[in-house]
Design brief:
It is built from 11 helices and 11 strands. With 353 residues, it is α+β, with helices and mostly antiparallel strands. The structure holds adenosine-5'-diphosphate, 2-acetamido-2-deoxy-1-O-phosphono-alpha-D-glucopyranose and magnesium ion.
């Protein structure tokens, strides 16, 4: 890994390379150079992102655009792609694809974060939306087709049930029923997009709060990371996925479901950070349905975990047996809790809109 790190234009020779972070998709390493400068080295998940060339064009375009928008702010830290010694945005080595990023300071916002940190995560994704304002969406390649097409995600579940490659369907009757019972959620936003009520924007699409860095001490946003899934989408997806992850009182893979619940307090903290940043640009339809983004993302993500469990865990990295099924269970519990709190969710969002 040290040899790989030294293939990039870094400030001084790489001395330490260690595994870093808790993402489910890429393999991430922290690089520490002789002069103590830090970088992030990633082995790109080539199975998830087969077109690395186009993926990196997206990321270079977006990071440069944001850096330009930040030019007037001397305190801004920019996420930038560090080129290889040959001047490329990634390195192909031994059948693997690697990229290097500048290291951003601050804390990622994970489960167990303070309310303030979660509010800052909201502010970060809200500001991200503003920083990308005007970005030419037609230049964006779609790295994962139908990423938040929940109707397609439902079809994928159906296919997994039909194929039953691991013989797990028989044990997952209740979970399958749960997603079937709520099939009507799938097309709600897509229908609004196709009939022109809901605009498409350049969105992040993977707004787990551990994809953001904040500086709580200085009440400051550092930046947004994990830009693999930037593409046109609804702003409901960005709002919703953060809530799904961060307004859960337990971790995403908690086995003790009594610990899992929807936190109104965390939901409100995120609304306080995110909505004031974006509200002036939102349409009435987006405002009215923002809360539903949280339900939809919780439904969709749980369904993806179940599908992956049935398919034999080929997508999300697992660390124990039935890990994806455990993840699915937390999303089911959380969604039920949200369903019991719809009016509360609507009212809180309204307050910040
Ligand atoms: P994945 O797609 O696997 O989630 P990420 O790009 O989110 O990969 O990186 C995984 C983790 O690595 C992040 O949650 C964060 O903790 C850390 N990380 C990634 N990029 C940076 C960066 N530029 N600066 C600081 N930490 C980073
Ligand atoms: C993945 O890459 P990461 O760990 O930030 C996934 C998201 C899911 C999330 C669930 C590209 O996010 O869509 O919501 O896991 N990213 C991709 O934890 O599929
Ligand atoms: Mg990530």
């Amino acid at each position: 890994m040290i040899d790989i790190a030294n293939q990039f234009k870094i400030e001084s020779a790489a001395e330490v390379v260690e595994e870093y972070g808790a993402g489910h998709i890429n393999q991430t390493y922290l690089v520490i150079c002789r002069n103590k400068t830090k970088y992030i080295l990633q082995k790109i998940n080539h199975k998830t992102f087969p077109n690395v060339d186009e993926l990196m064009k997206n990321i270079c375009g977006v990071t440069q655009y944001i850096a330009k928008s930040n030019e007037g702010d001397p305190t801004a830290e920019n996420l930038l792609v560090v080129p290889t010694l040959q001047g490329n945005s990634y390195l192909y080595f031994n059948e693997g694809y690697y990229r290097m990023y500048t290291f951003l300071s601050g804390q990622t916002v994970d489960t167990g974060a303070t309310l303030k940190q979660f509010e800052l995560a909201g502010r970060a994704f809200g500001q991200f939306q503003l920083l990308l304002d005007g970005y030419p969406a037609e230049n964006l390649f779609e790295p994962i087709k139908d990423f938040h097409n929940t109707v397609q995600r439902f079809r994928n579940l159906e296919k997994a049930i039909e194929q039953d490659v691991c013989g797990r369907v028989a044990q997952c009757g209740q979970e399958i029923q749960f997603y079937h019972d709520r099939q009507s959620y799938c097309s709600k936003v897509l229908d609004m997009i196709s009939n022109g009520e809901m605009p498409l924007r350049v969105t992040h699409n993977d707004t787990k709060p551990n994809n953001v860095l904040v500086d709580e001490e200085h009440d400051k946003v550092v930046g947004v990371i994990d830009l693999d899934t930037i593409m046109p989408g609804s702003i409901l997806y960005d709002f919703g996925d953060s809530i799904r992850y961060g307004a859960n009182t337990a971790v995403e893979d908690e086995r003790d479901l009594s610990k899992v619940s929807f936190s109104q307090q965390y939901y409100e903290a995120y609304c306080r950070g995110f909505l004031p940043e974006v509200k002036d640009r939102l349409t009435q339809c987006e405002k009215d349905n923002m809360y539903f983004g949280a339900m939809l993302m919780t439904y969709e993500c749980g369904m993806r975990f179940l599908t992956d469990h049935l398919n034999g865990d080929t997508y999300f990295r697992i660390h124990r047996e039935n890990h994806n099924l455990d993840r699915c269970h937390t999303q089911m519990k959380l969604l039920q809790d949200m369903e019991n709190n719809v009016e509360v969710m609507k009212n809180i969002a309204k307050k910040y809109l």
